[in-house]
């Protein structure tokens, strides 16, 4: 009896509760079907994963009744604010490269020295990069000497980026690249590869072993749409890329490299270690990966490795003589003992340094004791002004014109009779036929391989890339003028490379970069001077004396 009574009471209370609930819901739904409880703008952080940013407005759901529902039907609405659904955003890849796409990216590698001293040429190199906003510099700092992973300082050069790598990180990137190209490496192979890379690293004195692959090895820092990349050493001062790089035809070639402004009849072809350029395309990388010592894991591990100057030696020979890659050699490097460098105006090579020494009053004696004379200030100032005016008045011309003359030539391997710094078997050259080119005293020479596979020699007029210096810039007032036809000439070039002189005990450069209105005058055998806009010498170093930061009259 008691159990029956209890069951009846329970059912009664349940009926009352259900009825009350139904009445409450009916009351809520008849007061307005769209009067939903608003979402709060406060995010319940307990529902969120760590480090997730939520935009409240993006996550709000519409309060309108779905059109498929009839407004006459009651809509059950919870009596508490509904918890919002929070979407976890997908992890976006980190972008390490520039946007918009640069016209050209240069990759330079620098190794901090054990004595922690920066080379004296770095400030001018960076300043000359800044003066060429159309290019992008990726500056790799790699701990080759294992003195500690270098730090990346804040750069004041807008078109320069730094990447700082330990010894292990640097070679890991190379192992990643090689294993990917070989179709993968087993765990054991990868360990052995890294060990071999470390073992061979001390012989890579100037970071030459993998130069043609820099854009592929450091790909995550290079915009994939960049059309051209290049390597460049830092013991250089860049001239004007706008005036001296063959922008209008560069896309037609797989690789490009500079040569001197004038040549003899026999022309040696090779990638200069201090500068060369490559089309940023997969087929170029694939072609270089056919290099016998790199083609497979086994060949890299088992075959004898390359020389320390491999970019000028083995890689040059392979690309020029063993592949079908198209190429262009163009005038670009300062070749002369006597030259001028201006951050704002560019770099200029004297056509005939012997003639300059004989004719010009502006020279650097081997000792600085008597070099400064205020009487020559106007001449030095006139020279600087001359270069500035040239940069301001320059007019663009097509690289190849209707006036150019072109003929096919024969490539020769291992037959070079001149001096070489690498084994003769890797020498690649051809002999020019001057009767088939332009007959002017000075013509721009281009060497190229076109898609047909044929090699061509082409000569073009120099136009305003060769400059005649006015006698007022090197002949003092009252002196006899230079005879007609014997004036001094200079070439407007892409870059200057400090060569053997930088190893001399007497050699030095100012600790601060060349200012926009200053001019660096270099005689590789005798010394260097820095001039201010008035022509005053503000820095001087001579081969038989110590450098002087300021010369007083």
Automatic annotation (TrEMBL):
Keywords: Membrane, Transmembrane, Transmembrane helix
Domain of life per record: Eukaryota
One Pfam family matching this protein: DUF6625
Ranges annotated as spanning the membrane: 7-26
InterPro entries: DUF6625 (IPR046733)
Protein's name according to its UniProt entry: Uncharacterized protein
Species this chain originates from: Pleurotus eryngii (Boletus of the steppes)
Biological classification of the source: Eukaryota, Fungi, Dikarya, Basidiomycota, Agaricomycotina
């Amino acid at each position: 009896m008691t159990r029956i009574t209890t069951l009846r009471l329970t059912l009664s209370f349940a009926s009352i509760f259900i009825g009350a609930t139904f009445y409450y819901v009916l009351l809520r739904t008849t007061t307005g079907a769209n009067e939903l409880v608003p979402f709060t703008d406060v995010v319940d952080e307990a529902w969120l994963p760590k480090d997730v940013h939520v935009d409240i407005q993006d996550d709000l759901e519409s309060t309108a009744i779905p059109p498929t529902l009839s407004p006459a039907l009651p809509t059950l609405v919870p009596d508490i604010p509904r918890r919002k659904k929070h979407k976890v955003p997908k992890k976006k890849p980190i972008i390490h490269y520039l946007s918009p796409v640069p016209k050209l990216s240069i990759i330079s590698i620098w190794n901090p020295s054990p004595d922690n001293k920066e080379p004296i040429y770095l400030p001018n190199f960076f300043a000359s990069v800044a003066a060429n906003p159309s290019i992008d510099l990726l500056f790799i700092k790699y701990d080759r000497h294992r003195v500690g992973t270098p730090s990346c300082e804040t750069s004041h050069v807008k078109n320069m980026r730094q990447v700082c790598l330990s010894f292990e990180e640097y070679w890991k990137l190379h192992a990643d690249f090689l294993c990917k190209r070989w179709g993968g490496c087993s765990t054991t192979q990868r360990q052995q590869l890294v060990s071999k890379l470390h073992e061979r690293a001390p012989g890579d004195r100037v970071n030459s072993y993998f130069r043609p692959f820099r854009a592929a090895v450091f790909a995550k820092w290079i915009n994939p749409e960049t059309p051209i990349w290049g390597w460049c050493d830092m013991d250089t001062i860049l001239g004007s890329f706008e005036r001296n790089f063959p922008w209008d035809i560069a896309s037609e070639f797989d690789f490009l490299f500079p040569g001197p402004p004038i040549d003899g009849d026999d022309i040696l072809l090779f990638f200069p270690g201090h500068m060369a350029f490559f089309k940023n395309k997969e087929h170029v990388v694939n072609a270089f990966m056919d290099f016998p010592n790199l083609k497979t894991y086994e060949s890299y591990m088992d075959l004898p490795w390359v020389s320390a100057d491999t970019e000028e030696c083995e890689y040059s020979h392979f690309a020029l003589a063993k592949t079908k890659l198209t190429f262009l050699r163009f005038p670009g490097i300062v070749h002369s003992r006597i030259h001028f460098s201006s951050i704002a105006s560019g770099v200029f090579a004297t056509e005939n340094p012997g003639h300059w020494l004989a004719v010009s009053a502006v020279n650097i004696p081997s000792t600085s004791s008597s070099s400064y004379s205020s009487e020559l200030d106007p001449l030095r100032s006139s020279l600087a002004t001359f270069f500035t005016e040239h940069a301001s008045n320059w007019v663009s011309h097509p690289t190849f014109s209707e006036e150019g003359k072109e003929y096919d030539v024969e490539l020769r391997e291992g037959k070079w009779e001149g001096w070489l710094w690498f084994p003769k078997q890797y020498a690649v050259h051809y002999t020019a036929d001057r009767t088939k080119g332009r007959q002017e005293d000075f013509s721009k020479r281009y060497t190229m391989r076109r898609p047909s596979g044929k090699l061509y020699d082409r000569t073009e007029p120099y136009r305003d890339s060769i400059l005649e210096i006015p006698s007022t810039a090197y002949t003092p007032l009252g002196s006899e003028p230079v005879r007609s036809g014997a004036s001094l000439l200079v070439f407007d070039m892409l870059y200057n490379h400090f060569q053997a002189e930088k190893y001399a005990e007497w050699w030095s450069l100012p600790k601060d970069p060349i200012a926009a209105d200053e001019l660096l005058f270099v005689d590789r055998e005798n010394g260097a001077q820095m001039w201010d806009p008035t022509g005053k010498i503000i820095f001087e170093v001579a081969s038989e004396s110590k450098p002087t930061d300021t010369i007083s009259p």
